[in-house]
């Protein structure tokens, strides 16, 4: 029924009318990985999008919007107070190897720019995503993948806002290991990140250790920002201009991070809060539409237009 409803919206012209009405607003969309391999537990949140589906989604967005580099749009907004008309930027979070092997060739073929927010410690192998360690442990403890997946979603929602120390304690209580381990969806190394940069794609920091800025002290947040800024400089040879909050968690109050960002030359930061960015947008908490979840092409069009805010359980298979 949901796909029928979206089809009716398209046929009625409402999606086009909404895009026209909001042509002065700026849209930022988020992906994580592009991988043809699926897994009922490790990819329970569908962070990994199938390459063929990804290509179709990007082609549709390119027909509907003017896809621009995020940095260009942000600098224009800061200088003039206006976003590019019908503008949309594509971003990726975390730094999966499939960003280079799968996403980049598709974007290059289509002539589409993108910004890749990369977590330094994942690339350097100093840490790996704790959520994959948790999912692997739960898979070995539950008789069915459905039970393991449900428990993973529950625990991860509880654990994301925690500090590193508190999360390590939770792993200890489960008698599970949250230590560095190879993942089913591996991350780029430094040379591969550099290669992505040399292809013309924008590389920006996504934290050094993928911390929740909601759960850490100001000193720890500063260390994380500093480490991630240094990483981008070392790998790309360029000073970073932007930042993506891990988990989308903004510090409270937001001014705590703002002064730190300005110290390191950061001009703007993106969250995971859904919505368009209007003329009054806060540059330290820009909105993004998250497109992971396996959404069909019509669902992506409706979601980014803002007519329906689809939940993950409304995504197409």
Give a written overview of the molecule.
With 317 residues, the protein is of the alpha/beta class. It has a single domain, classed as Glycoside hydrolase/deacetylase (TIM Barrel, Alpha-Beta Barrel). 46% of the residues lie in helices and 11% in strands. It has 13 helices and ten strands. Strands 1, 4, 5, 6, 7 and 10 form a six-stranded parallel β-sheet that branches. The chain has a two-stranded parallel ribbon with strand order 2-3. Helix 4 (70-80) links the parallel strand 4 (66-67) and strand 5. The longest helix is centred in the last third of the chain and has 19 residues, at 218-236. It starts with a helix and ends in a 12-residue tail after the last helix.
Q: Report the biggest beta sheet as strand number plus sense, adding barrel if it closes.
A: 6 strands, parallel
The structural domain count equals 1
CATH topology term: TIM Barrel
CATH classification, class level = Alpha Beta
Described by the principal axes of the CA atoms, the overall outline is globular
- One letter per element, helices H and strands E, the order comes to HHEEEHEHEHEHHHHHEHEHEEH
Helical residue percent band = 40-55%
Low-confidence stretches: 309-317
Question: Average pLDDT across residues?
Answer: 90
Provide key terms for this protein.
317 residues; alpha/beta; TIM Barrel; 6-stranded parallel beta sheet; two-stranded parallel ribbon; 13 helices; 10 strands; 11% strand; globular; disordered C terminus
Topology:
Layout: H1 2-12, H2 14-21, E1 27-31, E2 33-34, E3 48-49, H3 51-64, E4 66-67, H4 70-80, E5 87-94, H5 97-110, E6 115-118, H6 120-124, H7 130-141, H8 145-159, H9 164-174, H10 190-198, E7 202-205, H11 218-236, E8 242-244, H12 255-263, E9 268-270, E10 289-290, H13 297-305
Parallel strand pairs: 1-5, 1-10, 2-3, 4-5, 5-6, 6-7, 8-9
